[in-house]
Specification:
16% strand, 12 strands, single chain, DNA polymerase, domain 1, alpha+beta, four-stranded antiparallel sheet, 354 residues, elongated, PTS-regulatory domain, PRD
Length: 354
């Protein structure tokens, strides 16, 4: 039996009994030639997937942070949704900032986005045509003064009140809306950060405080002082793809889908998840498993037409003078030929004796 060289070198150290047991298990793990691995993977994930619940997971001590798991999250992954419903980040800290909660909090303050309306009381007086803002924050004052431009502005040092006057009521309302949306500090997309303590495990030697962030902005977060960019990750697969490449995105698809299945106590061999991830990323980009992705972009006209939008695919193929090579399963079933699986993977011809 042919065994990969790397595995062969490792089993040399085993005694005869353990070696035989390993080889027996290795044989069981091998697939038969011509095995329909795609069908097996689809059945292995799809069948238990029908029993999945529409549940939402709440982190202990963080009741207001809901993480969608179960069927909705699996659909997000398979459909390759560009913006997950509840984007989240696991932000790991460098050796210095993970030691104490206070240092972790400093990093959290750098990350959490704060708008002008969070640091300033804004009141609108339509009768006097004035905008009144009360704030002690110097950065907020600078932003207000810069946004006011040529408008009449009065600042009262004693009460920390800024009053802006404008003749046009419409322009004043627009200014109020603009000021409320002004981001003063933090990273765009990071709404809140929660500090959590992580213990050392067999799989991960990280020990200390880390941050759980609501929202995601992988590129910017990785460059923030105090963050460990080599460990920090997000559940937004497209952000991983855009910043770390297709291989990292493939691993994220495997990890995220396995996390969903494990949470539901569904045991699925990871190789099935790997096969799905391979198909989704084989072109170098992330494709969904649907008519707008893998199924709709197959090389076979008949295979595309058999899935959805039959008339569209047949008509387009006729206009473009496409031909079908008949090398897949679906197209061969349609025309009544043996499928290229199992015994159909080989061509045998009887050669009579002369």
């Amino acid at each position: 039996m042919d065994i990969p060289e790397e595995i062969s070198n490792k089993i040399k150290k085993l005694n005869k009994k353990d070696k035989e047991k390993f080889l027996e298990n290795y044989k069981k793990a091998l697939i038969d030639p011509g095995e329909a691995i795609g069908t097996v993977a689809a059945q292995s994930i799809g069948e238990p997937g029908t029993q999945m619940t529409l549940r939402t997971f709440h982190y202990a001590g963080v009741a207001e942070l809901a993480v969608p798991l179960g069927l909705p999250r699996l659909i997000e992954i398979i459909d390759a949704k560009k913006s997950p419903k509840n984007a989240m980040m696991d932000i790991y800290l460098d050796e210095k900032h993970r030691k104490t909660k206070e240092l972790a909090k400093k990093v959290a303050e750098r990350l959490e986005e704060k708008f002008l309306c969070d640091l300033c009381n804004i009141s609108f007086d339509p009768e006097e045509k004035t905008l009144i803002m009360v704030t002690e924050n110097k950065e907020a004052r600078k932003t207000i003064k810069a946004s006011a431009k040529s408008r009449e502005l009065i600042f009262d040092k004693e009460t920390n009140t800024i009053t802006i006057k404008e003749k046009s009521l419409i322009k004043l309302k627009k200014l109020r809306d603009l000021l409320e949306k002004k981001r003063l500090i933090g990273v765009k997309g990071i709404k809140r950060c929660f500090i959590r303590k992580k213990e050392k495990t067999n799989d991960d030697d990280y020990e200390g405080f880390m941050l759980l962030a609501e929202g995601s902005n992988l590129k910017t977060v990785m460059g923030i002082k105090g963050v460990d960019p080599t460990r920090t990750t997000t559940n937004d697969i497209f952000q991983i793809y855009e910043n770390l490449g297709v291989e990292a995105a493939r691993n994220a698809i495997i990890t995220e889908s396995k996390k969903v299945l494990d949470d539901q106590k569904i045991e699925v061999d990871i190789r099935h998840n790997m096969l799905v991830a391979d198909q989704m990323t084989v072109t170098g980009a992330i494709r969904s498993v649907g008519r707008h992705g893998i199924s709709g972009k197959k090389g076979s006209v008949l295979a595309r037409a058999a899935f959805e939008e039959t008339e569209k695919h047949i008509l387009t193929a006729a206009i473009m003078s496409e031909t079908d090579p008949l090398i897949g399963v679906v197209e061969n079933i349609i025309v009544g030929l043996p499928i290229p699986m199992g015994t159909g993977t080989v061509e045998l011809r009887y050669s009579p004796k002369k």
